[in-house]
Amino acid sequence: MKLILAIINHDDAHIVIQHLTQAGFSVTKLATTGGFLMVGNVTVLVGVDDDKVDGAMEIIGRHSNSRRQVVPAASELGLGLYAPMPIEVTVGGATAFVLHVDQYHKF
Fold it and tell me: I need a surface site. Which of 11, 48, 96, 100 has the fewest CB within 10 A?
């Protein structure tokens, strides 16, 4: 058995969870916040049999979209003056970890 821990952009989480559920996967959703942009993410936990990992990962990848976003930053102009310089970054998509589960107990 495996545990998929996937961190998904908040904008994509609903559709990912919907497709995982429709495919028969049980999903636990946790609200989380990213460290870089401090924006909302969703972390999903999916317990799957070894032979179902690829199917779940395909669904997560297909419905997690990257997008470009402009964020403000500051850059020094000299003499202690700072001017805002926007930076374009790629956000979204998903980061997924597949962990081996030694034991599983349902109570």
Answer: 100
Domain 2-100 has CATH 1.10.10.10: no
Q: What is the mean pLDDT of each run of 10 residues along the chain (107 residues)?
A: 94 95 96 70 95 98 85 58 67 89 88
Q: Is the pTM of this model over 0.90?
A: no
- The rounded Cα 103 to chain-centroid distance in angstroms is 26
Q: Around Cβ 92, how many Cβ atoms within 10 Å?
A: 16
Break the chain into its structural domains and give their ranges.
Answer: 2-100
Q: Interior CA angle at 84 toward 81 and 88, to 5°?
A: 145
Q: Contact, 18 vs 49, CB < 8 A?
A: no
